[in-house]
Amino acid sequence: MEHASARQIAAIPHYAEQGRECTLFEQAWRQRLPVLIKGPTGCGKTRFVEHMAARLGRPLVTVSCHDDLSAADLVGRHLIAGGDTVWCDGPLTRAMRTGAILYLDEVVEARKDTTVVLHPLADDRRLLSIERTGEQLLAPPEFMLVVSYNPGYQNLLKSLKPSTRQRFVAMSFGYPAPALEEAIVAAESGVSPAEARSLVSLAGALRRLTDHDLEETASTRLLVMAGRLIAAGLDPAAACRAAIVEALSDDAETVAALAELVDAVLAPAGAAR
Ligand code: ADP
């Protein structure tokens, strides 16, 4: 069972830089240092890695980690094919052989045995020992390990151990500043600058809420989704309810309160349009 995608990205995916993260990432790649990206869901981590892989001309292998993902899922396993046993590389091994950028999204979800293979890879040994075949694979200079996780989840059992964390150059992502987020939402969804502004002010209002027990708040991704529905002709309040409010909560009272907030924030913008 493998949840990986490998691709050479032809055009460079659009990424609006928040600070100097592109330079930092490029220098880390040149210095052969692994990178850890922390940040809430939907704030642009994946897009950033896609952008950088294309910019550096490297294939990107992405693995969405889950609680069943084991070291063998990453490294590879023997498979029976036509009566023969054949070795099949996993995404990690494949990424190393092709000098790709390997992106382990939500790495804290993976099973603990994965750290055993990641540790020698994430220090200056840059080595993968494939126990089952006896192969010792050295990472080529172009190979890079990138992991991400969301430290906002209040799940202490699922954080990275210091011994793992201290092998990575780390960068923290947050939601983009309002002017940048407006430009992103407009460019990604096709809404007008005024519509992008009201979506970003709605996100600001939702992100300031403290009296609802929301696990996560409105991400840039949700704003882009709402924007796409609006650009396609849907009424803005209906679009925000479907793309933002319903995505944030299953609790009927919370959904009603958030929907009221949507109406309150969008009404003046709608009246002004
Ligand atoms: P994450 O990996 O952090 O969950 P994504 O990278 O998938 O988030 O971002 C979600 C969506 O938000 C992207 O598909 C893109 O449309 C938009 N987005 C967020 N940040 C940026 C950015 N800085 N530049 C361009 N698009 C962005």
From TrEMBL:
Keyword Cytoplasm attached: no
Keyword Endoplasmic reticulum set for record: no
Recorded GO MF terms: ATP binding; ATP hydrolysis activity
InterPro entries: ATPase_dyneun-rel_AAA, CbbQ/NirQ/NorQ/GpvN, CbbQ_C, P-loop_NTPase
Domain ATPase dynein-related AAA: 34-168
Organism for this UniProt entry: Sphaerotilus sulfidivorans
Protein name (Swiss-Prot/TrEMBL): CbbQ/NirQ/NorQ/GpvN family protein
Keywords of the record: ATP-binding, Nucleotide-binding, Plasmid
Domain of life of the native organism: Bacteria
Chain ranges of the CbbQ/NirQ/NorQ C-terminal domain: 181-265
Stated family: Belongs to the CbbQ/NirQ/NorQ/GpvN family.
